[in-house]
Amino acid sequence: MALVKLNNRGVRSATTFGSISGLGEMRFIKKQTASASSTIDFVDGTSDVVLDDTYKEYLFTFNNMHPSATTGNPVLSFQGNAAGGSGYNETMTTTHFRAGHNEDDGDQYLSYNTGGDQAQGTGFQQIVDGDTGGDNDQSVSGYLHLFNPSSTTFVKHFISKTHTSTADDSVRTTFNAGYFNTTSAIDEIQFKMSTGNIDAGDICLYGIN
Asked: Which residues 6+ apart lie within 8 Å of 1 measured at CB?
């Protein structure tokens, strides 16, 4: 098979190119901005939110989520609600580990945190380890992937990674994964701080083909 070479002129002169079907393309759906918000909710069919079988993978991104509480160890957390259900209390089994480093170089670690996971729990899953700092320049950013939430065959897997500037002036990266242990479709996701409100920050939702 001969090797075809293209020079700059050949590329400039081309009038058509092949295309990919769009698999893997990320589509923006909804952005919500916190302002002393007790929760941020993404509900399918409400306020232009799509969280159904339109996409098999959804991505939530967090940008500078800042807690209103300066004490009480505020951490960002989430839960889901099954289609036709009531209350954010779906059964989860999860894992939770973290890496950290203090600004004064006094402590470095990589460890599993049993206090951050759930075994068939129905509480909100923390996606941040340790308290997010309440100083004006402190916040948490990261993402949450939710896979095939509309399936009525499989449990609903998720993976998250966040990075926090903490109240004790350290950097902390937190890794979470798990599943909603239900074969019902999940069509609502709620985010909140464990203590106080979400003072500021953006959460964006994307669908991935």
From this structure: none
With beta carbons less than 8 A apart as the criterion, state whether 66 and 202 touch: no
User: Model confidence at 23, in pLDDT bands (50, 70, 90)?
Assistant: low
Helix (H, G, I), strand (E, B) or coil at 1: coil
Domains with residue ranges and CATH for the chain: 29-208 (2.60.120)
pLDDT tens for residues 50-82?
Answer: 999 999 999 999 999 999 988 778 999 999 999
Tokens read off for 177: 């994964």
CA distance 126 to 118: 10
Give the alpha-carbon dihedral of 158, 163, 166, 168, to 10 degrees. Answer: 110
